[in-house]
């Protein structure tokens, strides 16, 4: 090192030394007023301070000390507590009384980390019975911490933002619905405070939530993970990706260039617009994959009997973000399904005798957009007579400014682990709940490896042994197929079931409560309840039946196959009391046919006249299967197949 450089380093060190010696005492952002700390374990609390300084902490009347390392990091370890509180947590740097940090309203109970993509992120205000649920959400011993969205190329020591909130009518609307209903049942059953750390991001694959070190161990993810090295945090597109989402939502919620005054107006000339059949998804009608605002228009003629009356319009199941106009006047603005239904009142004063104009401004995102099925739910009525709104509509895109380009870096390997998981390790927890998989369906076979990798990764990093990991299997979704067929979603569900081979894991099957036309089924209450059932059995050791029938083994008996199940409870039956459905059978030609299935105790006997020498049986093997096998607790049988024939996602 030459003299000039040495002198520069010396000068810089002179200026930096006072700053290093006066580093402010801080707590990790995951700690705060009203938090819940985990009972029954040594409780870690960490932060930063002057290197070498001694940190004192007091939780209630119990004390702990730690010394900050050379990097300024320190961690206190409080002894085990039983459930209770509220307590006050006090932290200070010895010899510096003015540095004291004080957190109030701290409870000791059970803390669960809730993570995954949009079905875990789906808020209480978006789910079924939202208004009623919000009005009755008074649970002061349930607390939520929602980690703010963030993505980083390197593991972070601090989250971007978040705050512990008490579960009440003011706060609950923004919480994960699945996690809230899970927490509510556990709180009622176990009578202890429950804390939820919610770290979720819609549309994201499992790779985004897994550490770089773990992803590099697999040939499935190694090359893609290494490709992240071509990125840098200060790249303009990485930084502006989040800003562009802000711009997109501004465009979604705010019509541009007086669009809301021009295009819904009855006198507007829509002669150049393209026809489209509704209900339907716009991308299926020639528009292709498009992201932006699209306008739909339809003229209807009202009968004389409707004159002078307030009418009701029902839009069936439209895309999540839309606005409805009648004769140029806005009737509603729906943001992320904020409305409990899609039925609206049209005041009589807005209607005209004879012809009227209905317009819908809809956001096309992630390939969606349109007025979805069923057709019977698309109508206008006076209560006595009904006019269908199904059929020909007109649509046009590019009437408003285009959305800025989004590169969706949140989908990249490890970026969410770095920013939204790593910073909350090693917060003391009871276990994990997880709802994800939709984003990995096209490569479902790889999920057999990737999902267990994530579970193992998180457990190793938390260092709490085989911490309970409970997850939700994908619901039924998309159109029901008339014949047995292959299915990416069925293969993803199979990968999830195979993950149960890991110790201390549990799966909530919801193959019976999905919705054909919505990837976000609204009945989150039952999802949370089923997760809590598993927790009650596996974690809290209650003697309950927590899962539906699970395939155990099969035996060929001439022209039929006998299937044996576990988790049958007091016996097998059908959910609706009707004939057993959902079974398909095949011979050596691998051609599946719908089968006749009969319940015999804990067994199901499967056969088909078209298959003389059966080789394999599948149950609920479809995107949206028609299936009804349940146990005595009315919990659905888990989809399965007896064959190991190559699937459509195995490459």
Give a brief outline of the structure.
With 651 residues, the chain is α+β, with helices and mostly antiparallel strands. The protein is built from twelve helices and 37 strands. Among the domains are: 253-397, Sandwich (Jelly Rolls); 550-641, no CATH class.
Radius of gyration: 28 Å
Mean pLDDT: 91
Amount of beta strand: 25-35%
Structural class: alpha+beta
CATH topology of the domain at 253-397: Jelly Rolls
CATH C-level name of the domain at 253-397:
Mainly Beta
Q: How far apart are the first and last residues' alpha carbons, in Å?
A: 55 Å
The second-level CATH architecture of the domain at 253-397 is Sandwich
In helices, the fraction of residues equals 10-25%
Number of strands: 37
Major beta sheet, specifics?
11 strands, mixed
Unreliable runs: 1-21
| Tally of helical runs | 12
C-alpha geometry = globular
CATH superfamily label of the domain at 253-397: Galactose-binding domain-like
Question: Which labels suit this protein?
Answer:
single chain; 651 residues; alpha+beta; Jelly Rolls; eleven-stranded mixed sheet; six-stranded antiparallel sheet; 12 helices; 37 strands; Galactose-bd-like_sf; SASA; SIAE; hydrolase; hydrolase activity, hydrolyzing O-glycosyl compounds
């Amino acid at each position: 090192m030459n003299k000039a450089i040495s002198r520069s380093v010396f000068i810089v060190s002179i200026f930096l030394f006072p700053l290093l010696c006066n580093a402010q005492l801080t707590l990790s952002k995951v700690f705060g007023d009203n938090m819940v700390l985990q009972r029954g374990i040594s409780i870690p609390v960490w932060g930063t301070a002057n290197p070498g300084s001694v940190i004192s902490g007091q939780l209630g009347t119990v004390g702990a000390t730690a010394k900050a390392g050379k990097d300024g990091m320190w961690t206190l370890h409080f002894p085990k507590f039983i459930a209770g509180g509220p307590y006050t947590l006090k932290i200070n740097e010895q010899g510096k009384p003015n540095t004291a940090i004080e957190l109030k309203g701290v409870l000791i109970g059970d803390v669960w980390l809730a993570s995954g993509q949009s079905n875990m992120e789906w808020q209480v205000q978006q789910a079924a019975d939202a208004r009623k649920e919000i009005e009755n959400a008074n649970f002061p011993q349930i607390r939520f911490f929602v980690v703010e969205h963030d993505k980083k190329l390197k593991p972070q020591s601090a989250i971007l933002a978040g705050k512990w909130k008490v579960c009440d009518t003011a706060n609950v609307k923004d919480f994960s619905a699945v996690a809230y209903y899970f927490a509510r049942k556990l709180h009622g059953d176990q009578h202890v405070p429950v804390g939820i750390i919610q770290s979720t991001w819609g549309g994201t694959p499992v790779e985004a939530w897994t550490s770089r070190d773990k992803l590099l161990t697999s040939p499935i993810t190694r090359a893609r993970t290494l490709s992240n090295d071509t990125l840098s945090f200060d790249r303009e597109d990485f930084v502006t990706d989040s800003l562009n989402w802000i711009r997109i939502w501004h465009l979604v919620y705010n019509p541009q260039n007086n669009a809301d005054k021009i295009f819904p107006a009855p006198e507007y000339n829509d002669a150049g617009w393209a026809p489209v059949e509704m209900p339907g998804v716009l991308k299926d009608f020639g528009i292709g994959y498009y992201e932006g605002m699209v306008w739909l228009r339809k003229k209807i003629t009202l009968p004389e009997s409707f004159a002078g009356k307030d009418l009701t319009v029902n839009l069936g199941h439209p895309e999540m973000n839309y606005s409805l106009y009648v004769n140029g006047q806005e009737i509603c603005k729906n943001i992320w399904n904020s409305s409990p239904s899609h039925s609206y009142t049209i005041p009589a004063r807005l209607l005209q005798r004879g012809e009227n104009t209905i317009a819908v401004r809809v956001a096309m995102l992630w390939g969606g957009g349109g007025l979805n099925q069923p057709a019977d739910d698309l109508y206008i009525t006076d209560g006595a007579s009904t006019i269908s709104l199904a059929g020909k509509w007109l649509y046009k895109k590019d009437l408003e400014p285009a959305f800025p380009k989004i590169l969706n870096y949140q989908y990249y390997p490890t970026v969410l682990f770095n920013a939204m998981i790593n910073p909350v390790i090693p917060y003391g927890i009871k276990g994990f709940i997880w709802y994800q998989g939709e984003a990995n369906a096209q490569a479902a076979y790889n999920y057999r490896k990737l999902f267990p990798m994530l579970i193992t990764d998180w457990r190793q990093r938390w260092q709490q042994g085989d911490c309970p990991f409970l997850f939700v299997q994908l619901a039924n979704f998309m159109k029901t197929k008339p014949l047995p067929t292959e299915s990416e979603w069925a293969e993803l569900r199979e990968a999830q079931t195979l993950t149960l081979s890991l110790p201390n894991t549990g799966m909530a099957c919801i193959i019976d409560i999905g919705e054909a036309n919505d990837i976000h089924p609204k009945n989150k209450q039952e999802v949370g309840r089923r997760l809590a059932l598993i927790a009650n059995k596996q974690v809290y050791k209650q003697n309950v039946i927590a899962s539906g029938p699970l395939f155990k083994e099969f035996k060929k008996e001439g022209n039929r196959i006998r299937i044996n199940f576990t988790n049958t409870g007091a016996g097998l039956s059908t959910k609706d009391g009707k004939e057993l459905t959902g079974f398909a059978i095949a011979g050596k030609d691998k051609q599946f046919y719908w089968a006749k299935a009969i319940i015999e105790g804990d067994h199901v006997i499967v056969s088909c006249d078209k298959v003389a020498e059966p080789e394999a049986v599948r149950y609920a093997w479809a995107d949206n299967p028609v299936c009804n096998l349940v146990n005595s607790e009315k919990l659905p049988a888990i989809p399965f197949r007896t064959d190991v024939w190559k699937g459509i996602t195995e490459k």
